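Form 7-S
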Amino acid sequence: MIDPVRNVHFHMVRSFALLIALVPFTAFRSVEAQTPTWSDDVSCIVMSHCTPCHHEGGAGHFSLMTYADAYPKRVDIRDYTQARAMPPWPPDPEYARHAHERVLTQEEIDIIAAWVNGNAPEGDPQNTPTPPVYDSEWVIDQPDISVIMEEYVIPSSSADLYRCFVMPSGNSVDRFITGLEVVPGNTEVVHHVLVYQDTTGAAQALDDADPQPGYTSFGGIGVSGARLVGLWVPGASPYFTPQGMGIKLFADADIVIQVHYPAGSDFQLDSTRVNLQLSTAPFIRNLAIDAVLDHVLTITDGPLIIPPDQVKTFHAQFTSPIPATITAIGPHAHLIAQSMKAFAVTPQNDTIPLIDIPQWDFRWQGLYEFQRPIYLPAGTTLYGEATYDNTAANPNNPNDPPDWVFLGEATTDEMMLFYFAYTLGFPGDTAIVVDTASHAAHHLDCEPAISLGLAEEAPGPAFELWPVPTQDALFISSPEPGELHLIDQAGRTVRCVVVKGSARVAVADLARGMYVAEFQLRNKPHVQRTKVLLE
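Output:
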């Protein structure tokens, strides 16, 4: 039997021997120095992007805080990061950008692989950054409303459990949520949390009918009148609404959470909390979260039925009668969904990519904020599409052999929903900044000491823009994916277009004058600008 570690070592030795024969000794030393170490290079990446979940008591189920933690997991770290399965971030960042993306750069992925393939050396422990501290302190440390579910002991089961818990808000008048924080009571077993408000009393009735704390419900909370107000997934930060906007919390509403406990959580204790920050502003715009694209009212090729041994794609569309600003999007489906995608087309025929999840995974759904709110003029049409794989080749298929799958709430049913956080829109909303970072900030501003030379240096011309000056439209092309911002003289973004190859940007409705076209390459800090005159 071949030992993979010894086999890799053999090929490395043979490769180095060839290098000795072909290049001077000084060049050999330079190549040898390219092996990253934990202390100087990899620890910065792991502490910044992995330990928010992978710490003692965290949702990652094992710690990666130290070299001793990471070394036994080194091969998995390499393989999962190369497959971009970790950190978990289902949306394709090359299709549309979102706030607080949990995405590694290719350079970071390559450093991890080179470290593992080079036998994962520790390096000088004194060079390791001070590890981050994870404690139980709340981010919203003085919440206006804080509710906690009754302690619940998870029963023994070989299947995942979706349990709902009802908590009176104690809110006597309508108010607006501007901050929402979920504090898992047991991060070892709480996989995700959906937060609803219910004014019908139906959720409480379901709870009362179950002798144990809460009640079981898979797809949602089993109440048609309930409204989603937020969610939590591992690694997520508390959600804060954009400036001047808030989610209306109705008087006397119950806060209802659906908690996902994965299989193997037997006899664990949980008591999850929700903290709410409420607005004190005299005026605030209501930010609703609704399934604007769905499997009943807006589906265009329904009904949502997937026969056995078939792969089917369904579509939905909705044209907004009013100008709207959207701040977040949350696709939702069940187990046999394969991919979900949404985009918008304005009356000027501009296509605005919203989200693309090419490999759907029910376990990793979220509400994804945009880096800046997106303004949609009246008459904009939203489009959604979802593909379902009801064949034996789908490892997530709950039926063996495949069976008919219908629309419904059960585990073996399916859904197609695209939730949008939206409000009455104004063009100036695009100037609100939620997160414009091209890459998540590193712990203590650390950076890997090594550079593998795989990342490109500052690029030459990254895009072409024509005609300039123009009256009706601009055309842009770029050999690399990126995002074009058209900025007026007041510094406001009036157009934002994702570019993959080429795109058309309608400008006939904009005021005449000088603008700045700013092009940002994907996952790179480089920004290029040029002036544009609209005649």
